[in-house]
Amino acid sequence: MPTVRDVRSKAGEEPITMLTAYDAPTASIVDEAGVDIILVGDSLGNTTLGHETTLPVTVDDMARHTGAVARATEDALIVADMPFLSIGVDEAASIENAGRMLKEEDAHAVKLECGPHTVDLTKKLVQLGIPVMAHLGLTPQHVNQYGGYPRQGTDQEAAERILELAEAHENAGAFSLVLEHVPSNLAAEVTDAIDIPTIGIGAGPDCDGQVLVVDDAVGLSEWTPSFSKQFGDVRGEMESAIDDYVAAVESGEFPAAEHGHEESDLEELY
Ligand code: KIV
Ligand code: NA
C-alpha cells in the first residue's frame, strides 16, 4: 500500500511525480506509468464537468471521482482535493467531508487549499488519521478575490506570508505542500525552509516534485496555462479517431462482416 511516508522519504532523493486523474481509465494509465501521487483535483470542475471555475464542485462530485480513480489504481498514493466550502466553515462538517474520501472512497490523503483558517484543521485531521497535503500560493477557489489567476507571493510581504503558512502547516502535521504559481525563488526558499516535500505547479524547478493537470499534460485541454506543458496530442488523436468513425459509418464501411453481425438461422418473421 502506498503511504505518505514513501512520499516524504523520496523528498530530496528523487523528484516526486504527481498528476491529476478524474476517471478510471486515466488513473490506470497514470498509475501504470509509475507516477507517485494521483491527485483527484477539484480542477475536475473545469476539465471534466465543464464549469468555468472550481467553485461549483461538490463533495459528492469529489467522492464519485475519487472512487473511480481508486478502483483503477494499484500503486500510486491517491489524494482527494477538498472542494470550495467543504472545509473551513464548520469543523465537524470539514472532518466528515474529508474523512468520507478515505472511509468511503479509498483515498489515502486529502488536499486543502490553505490559509490561516486551515492550520488547526490540519492538526485535527492528522490527529484523526487523515493525512493532509497543504496547498499555498495561487489557490483557485479564491478566484473571486483575485479577479483571475495571478501569480502569488510576488512582493516581500506576500512571500513572507506564504513562507509562514508553509511552516505553520508543516508544524500542524501536513505531509507535503503544493506551491502553485509563485516565483521560483520563493518556491526554492520555501523548499529549503521546510522538511516536508514541496510539489510545484508553475513554481519553477526547485521544488521536491512537480504536478500538472493531466488534461493539460497529455494535450486534451483546449487551453492550458503558460506554466504547463503538453507532452502529447490526445485531443488531436481523439479528433482524428472520431472523424474516421463518422466517415466509416456514413460510407457504410463500418460495421463490416468481421464486426460480428452474422445473421441467425431464424425463419422469416413475416
Ligand atoms: O485541482 C487541481 O488539479 C490542483 C492542482 C493543480 C494542484 O489543485
Ligand atoms: Na485543486
From TrEMBL:
<feature type="binding site">
    <location>
        <position position="113"/>
    </location>
    <ligand>
        <name>Mg(2+)</name>
    </ligand>
</feature>
<feature type="binding site">
    <location>
        <begin position="42"/>
        <end position="43"/>
    </location>
    <ligand>
        <name>3-methyl-2-oxobutanoate</name>
    </ligand>
</feature>
<feature type="active site" description="Proton acceptor">
    <location>
        <position position="180"/>
    </location>
</feature>
<keyword id="KW-0963">Cytoplasm</keyword>
<dbReference type="InterPro" id="IPR015813">
    <property type="entry name" value="Pyrv/PenolPyrv_kinase-like_dom"/>
</dbReference>
<feature type="binding site">
    <location>
        <position position="81"/>
    </location>
    <ligand>
        <name>Mg(2+)</name>
    </ligand>
</feature>
<protein>
    <recommendedName>
        <fullName>3-methyl-2-oxobutanoate hydroxymethyltransferase</fullName>
        <ecNumber>2.1.2.11</ecNumber>
    </recommendedName>
</protein>
<comment type="pathway">
    <text>Cofactor biosynthesis; coenzyme A biosynthesis.</text>
</comment>
<keyword id="KW-0489">Methyltransferase</keyword>
<comment type="function">
    <text>Catalyzes the reversible reaction in which hydroxymethyl group from 5,10-methylenetetrahydrofolate is transferred onto alpha-ketoisovalerate to form ketopantoate.</text>
</comment>
<dbReference type="Pfam" id="PF02548">
    <property type="entry name" value="Pantoate_transf"/>
</dbReference>
<dbReference type="InterPro" id="IPR003700">
    <property type="entry name" value="Pantoate_hydroxy_MeTrfase"/>
</dbReference>
<keyword id="KW-0479">Metal-binding</keyword>
<keyword id="KW-0460">Magnesium</keyword>
<comment type="subunit">
    <text>Homodecamer; pentamer of dimers.</text>
</comment>
<dbReference type="GO" id="GO:0032259">
    <property type="term" value="P:methylation"/>
</dbReference>
<comment type="similarity">
    <text>Belongs to the PanB family.</text>
</comment>
<feature type="binding site">
    <location>
        <position position="42"/>
    </location>
    <ligand>
        <name>Mg(2+)</name>
    </ligand>
</feature>
<dbReference type="GO" id="GO:0003864">
    <property type="term" value="F:3-methyl-2-oxobutanoate hydroxymethyltransferase activity"/>
</dbReference>
<keyword id="KW-0808">Transferase</keyword>
<dbReference type="GO" id="GO:0008168">
    <property type="term" value="F:methyltransferase activity"/>
</dbReference>
<keyword id="KW-0173">Coenzyme A biosynthesis</keyword>
<feature type="binding site">
    <location>
        <position position="111"/>
    </location>
    <ligand>
        <name>3-methyl-2-oxobutanoate</name>
    </ligand>
</feature>
<dbReference type="GO" id="GO:0000287">
    <property type="term" value="F:magnesium ion binding"/>
</dbReference>
<dbReference type="InterPro" id="IPR040442">
    <property type="entry name" value="Pyrv_kinase-like_dom_sf"/>
</dbReference>
<comment type="pathway">
    <text>Cofactor biosynthesis; (R)-pantothenate biosynthesis; (R)-pantoate from 3-methyl-2-oxobutanoate: step 1/2.</text>
</comment>
<dbReference type="GO" id="GO:0015940">
    <property type="term" value="P:pantothenate biosynthetic process"/>
</dbReference>
<dbReference type="GO" id="GO:0015937">
    <property type="term" value="P:coenzyme A biosynthetic process"/>
</dbReference>
<feature type="binding site">
    <location>
        <position position="81"/>
    </location>
    <ligand>
        <name>3-methyl-2-oxobutanoate</name>
    </ligand>
</feature>
<dbReference type="GO" id="GO:0005737">
    <property type="term" value="C:cytoplasm"/>
</dbReference>
